Amino acid sequence: MGKGLHFTYRPKSFFQFVLLGFTLVTLPMIVAVINGGYHVENLFVQSEFAIYRAAQASQMSRALVGQISDMERNALQYQVLNDKTLLTTYANRHAQFLETAQQLGDLAESRSIKQQLETLTEKEVALFEYFAAGAKGEPSAAGPAKDFATLSQLAQSIVQESQQWINNQVELLGAMANSTKEFLLWQTVFIAAGTLVFAVFLSAMIARPISQIDQAIRHIGDGRLDEEVVVTGGTRDLQYVGTRLNWLRHRLTELEEKKGSFMRHVSHELKTPLTAIREGASLLAEGVLGHLSKQQREVTNVIQRNSVTLQKMIENLLNFNALEGKRTTLSVRPVRLDEVVEDVAADHKLALLSKSIQLRLHVPRAEIEGDREKLRVVVDNLLSNAIKYTPERGTLDVILQPNDDQVALDVKDSGPGIDPSECDKVFEAFYRGRLTPNGDIRGSGLGLSIAKEFVEMHQGAISVIPDSGRGAHFRVVLPRNVAKAVA
Q1: Any domain includes 253
Q2: How many Å separate Cα 247 from the centre of its chain?
């Protein structure tokens, strides 16, 4: 069994598409105008013909009455005066009468009028033959006067029948006009519906690929580079845009992979010398290599502190790179959040002592479901950020507030605080506020961004609390039970 032919026309450009759409939309209108003009012209011609016939019929039927009256007068005068001239005049009017009756019979379509015309013509011919024969004998028992009166009555009846026929013709024309009007109305309705269908069809043809292109651009903008860009329908130039977007997606994927590879290699290469610097500084600080003077000890402390900061920056870069590549997932298990806070605080003990910062912990037992390592990164980034901005001999408050459904973690320092206009920007990647700590390396601007991503992976929320006092106040709210299939 052979396959049927399949033909699909697809415009190459917007110009062809618009031209095709204009043609499809206007063609039914042109057909409607031509069809409507034909019906109106037909109605006009029929109306003109009917009016002409009605006028002629009315004129001829009334002419018959007048001609019978004239013939009666000539016939009676001839009967009295016996003047041949009057008989000739009568004969001429008799011929005119027969011609008028013949024309009216040909014009009128009413059978009643035709029958009455035949009767009238027969009686008038018989009466004329009577006078043409010398008026010998009686044409009827009633006499010529009575016969002419009968003819007049028949003519008046024909006039009335003609008027009735004319009225019927007028009603017929009215019905035809109403029928034409109804036809044109329904034609307008169907053409409007067809035009609307064409417009919807053409809009769908162009709206679908544009929507697909818009969705593809949004996916590329959101970093979802693993989804194929498919543009179906529409014009060929729109499909070409889809192919170029697909090329861009592949190109961005390659660049993203190169960037990730570069970040991993650079971070790894930086870790090796940084580890040596940290170990050397630790040996110097512990006096293994000999006694240090006060100034030497201060320099060693600065090296240790900044090496720790550099290590955190490298770790943040690695975490951010993993998040950008969507390669990180949650390993959900029961976690004692209070223990995580205490462990992180212990790791920052030296930094707290070096700046004489008073750390006030209020961490009651709080158990949740989550990824311990990622929660540790959240707490570590918040605490290290707070230590960095807290001045010497300042205070730092870390408070856990557990309840039935969730746990809130508040970290509040006594530093310069956050400008209200920057409260939403501090969580953006690589954003660094205008207020910077003194004596520390300027951060990468990734710590709070990574903390926000990890908190949201736990279906929680992090925000800046606008306090009236001095310092920055961050609050993290985490649910106790987090879904285990979260990426």
Answers
A1: no
A2: 28
- pLDDT value at position 161? 78
Q: What is the pLDDT of residue 484?
A: 44
Q: Enumerate residues 6+ apart whose C-beta is below 8 A from 160.
A: none
C-alpha dihedral, 437 to 440 to 445 to 449, nearest 10°: -80
**pTM > 0.70:** no
Number of domains, the chain? 2
**Residue 440 lies inside a defined structural domain of this protein:** yes
- Phi-psi map region of 397: left, alpha, beta (phi>0 left; psi -120 to 50 alpha): beta
Spans in the chain with pLDDT lower than 70: 1-17, 134-143, 223, 233-235, 259-260, 262-272, 274, 278, 288-289, 312-313, 315-328, 429-445, 468-469, 483-487
For residue 424, give its domain range: 329-487
Of 175, 203, 231, the last residue of a domain is 203
Answer yes or no: is 105 within a domain. Answer: yes
CB atoms within 10 A of CB 273: 9
128-143 tens-digit pLDDT: 787 777 655 455 545 6
Distance between CA atoms of residues 469 and 413, nearest Å:
10
